[in-house]
């Protein structure tokens, strides 16, 4: 997926400035597709030049005017075409998994602290996702189409974090069992 598509989706959900888009990426979209603020601004400029987004100047009191972006027809067409193109399943590059295999040639206890650190990160992400679910989707039966699909993506993130925590628990149990002092 190109960053352009993630930006188009975000702008269809709600038009906004480059700064507002960057904050959305930091809060939600960024858990599934990351981009720096500089990348977002650079791609927005390219999308503007290609006619994918419309831009309007918004006056602000005491601050410079800001540019508010929204999706133009050419952007909708590009997104529609991309939605119909097949995509390959994601290839996973997982440094920790390679380290887990590599520790067979060293002391397994050397990796325990790193696996615990990864587990803590995934637990924190899971808690963040669950808080967001409670806040943003308190009544899943009353959601419109867009919110139902946003909730489906969030549920995928929740399931991924739970799966990862379960796997890391298994890895920790295995590393403890294989320690030389056992």
UniProtKB/TrEMBL annotation:
Residues 92-175 form the Transcription regulator PadR C-terminal domain. PANTHER family: TRANSCRIPTIONAL REGULATOR YQJI, TRANSCRIPTIONAL REGULATORY PROTEIN. It comes from the Bacteria. Residues 7-79 form the Transcription regulator PadR N-terminal domain. This is PadR family transcriptional regulator.
């Amino acid at each position: 997926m190109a960053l352009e598509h993630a930006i188009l989706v975000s702008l269809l959900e709600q038009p906004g400035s480059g700064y507002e888009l960057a904050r959305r990426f930091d809060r939600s979209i960024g858990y599934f597709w990351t981009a720096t603020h500089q990348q977002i601004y650079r791609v927005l400029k390219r999308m503007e030049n290609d006619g994918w987004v419309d831009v309007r100047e918004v006056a602000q009191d005491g601050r410079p005017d800001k540019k508010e972006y929204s999706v133009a027809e050419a952007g909708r067409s590009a997104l529609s075409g991309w939605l119909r193109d097949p995509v390959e399943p994601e290839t996973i590059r997982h440094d920790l998994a390679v380290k887990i295999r590599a520790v067979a040639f060293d002391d397994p206890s050397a990796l325990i602290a790193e696996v615990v650190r990864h587990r803590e990160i995934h637990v924190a992400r899971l808690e963040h996702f669950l808080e967001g679910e409670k806040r943003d989707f308190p009544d899943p039966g009353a959601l419109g189409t867009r919110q139902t699909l946003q909730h489906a993506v969030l549920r995928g993130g929740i399931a991924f974090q739970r799966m990862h925590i379960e796997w890391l628990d298994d890895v920790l149990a295995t590393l403890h069992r294989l320690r030389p002092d056992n």
